[in-house]
Structure formats: structure tokens, C-alpha cells
Amino acid sequence: MSPAKVPARQRLLEAADRLFYSEGVHTVGIDRVIEEAGVAKGSLFYNFSGKDDLIAAYLAGRDHRRRDRIAKFQHGLDDPVHKLLAIFEALGEAVAEPGYKGCPFANANAEARPGSVESAALRTFRDWMANAMLSLCEDAGYAHPGDVSARLCLLYDGAVAGSNLDAQPQAVGIAKELATMVLETAPRR
Questions:
Q1: How far, in Å, CA of 132 to CA of 25, rounded?
Q2: How many Cα atoms within 13 Å fall on the side-chain side of residue 79?
Q3: What DSSP string runs through 106-134?
Q4: CA 20 to 30 Å from 136, out of 16, 40, 42, 94?
Q5: pTM over 0.70
Q6: CB 42 within 8 A of CB 6
């Protein structure tokens, strides 16, 4: 029995994920993705309406994987404070992976036009993260959950930037320590 052939859509997404993340969505042309995926040009247009649609699917996949990673670290935790800190633990695992190049949403958005699929994907993820942190801060009973979650988001962003731009993977650990201090000292209702 021969192994099942990987569908063209999946091969295109896998190639786009590798190339777009490592080299950039604005650097990598569609022909390069097609070649890397080993599919006919028609396969791209059968599965996606064009490069923007492929970029949107790539970023949606990255969003899904990031949310799954966070959920994995939060699994089995009941305390919302522990769930907040688990977000930083999930980030720590991500920055330790070989080939880590920072936030795929920020990277893709860096040269994008306002209103582009890249900016929409960035906004979708950032809104989800901010709302997740705010909800957990509310569940933890902080007197000013918006202030606490804003501080945590800033620490998260700093850890992403520091671990990538300055090649400092320990930035996540430092951010988690600071997040712990924020969570321990913020007044509760």
C-alpha cells in the first residue's frame, strides 16, 4: 500500500508557512511557494484566490497554532493567575524553537498596507490576546482588570521583541517574572 499523497492545498500551506515565516511574505513570490510545494500553478488558484488569500490562510494557521499552544499550557489549571502566567510559558516554548523569527503577525504586517490581510490577521490575534488576558484578570478579581491586562500585554510584546530583535530568549523569563510581580501587587476587589 502506498502512502497517501498530501493534498495540494496542504503542501501549499506548508511551503508558505516555511517560506513566509523564515523570509517574509513580501519577499517570497508566489512562484517560489508553488515550486517549494511541488504543485502546478493551477493548484494555487484552485485552492486560493491569490497570494493575499494564501497569506491570510498562512496567518490563520499561525494564529490557530499559537492559541493551541497557550491552551496546552493552560490545560488543567483552574487559577486565572496561573493561566495568565501560562501564556508566558507558552511563549517561552515558542522562542526556544529552532528558526524562531518573532511574531509572524507583526513580521507580515511590517510592510503591509493599512486594511491588508496582514493587518487584519495582526489585529485578530492581538485582540484575541488582549481579550483573553482581560477576561482572566476579571476572573482573578483584580480591582482594575484593564490596567493589569494592559501591563501584561506590554510585557508579552516586550518579550516577543526582546527574544527576537535582541536574540534574548531569556526575555520571556524576565517578562514572566515581571508579570508575576504585577499580578502579586495589583489590588483585588
A1: 27
A2: 5
A3: HHHHTTPPTTSHHHHHHHHHHHHHHHHHH
A4: 94
A5: yes
A6: no
The 10s digit of each residue's pLDDT in 42-83 is 999 999 999 999 999 999 999 999 999 999 999 999 999 999
Residues 6+ apart with CB under 8 A from 148: 137, 142, 182, 183, 186
Say whether 165 sits in a helix, a strand or coil. Answer: helix
- Quickly list H helices, the chain: 8-23, 30-37, 41-47, 51-74, 80-95, 104-109, 117-139, 145-165, 171-185
Q: Which residues contact 73 (CB under 8 A, 6 or more apart)?
A: 86, 87, 89, 90, 93
CB 51 within 8 A of CB 109: no
Whole-number pLDDT of residue 165: 80
Distance CA 35, CA 154 (A): 39
CATH of the domain at 10: 1.10.10.60
Distance CA(61)–CA(70), nearest Å, equals 14
**129 has pLDDT over 70:** yes
Considering only CA atoms, which of 157, 158, 159, 155 is closest in space to residue 178? 155
Instruction: Quote the domain boundaries for residue 172.
Output: 62-185
Considering the domain boundaries, does residue 56 fall inside one? no
Tell me the sheet residues that pair with 142: 188
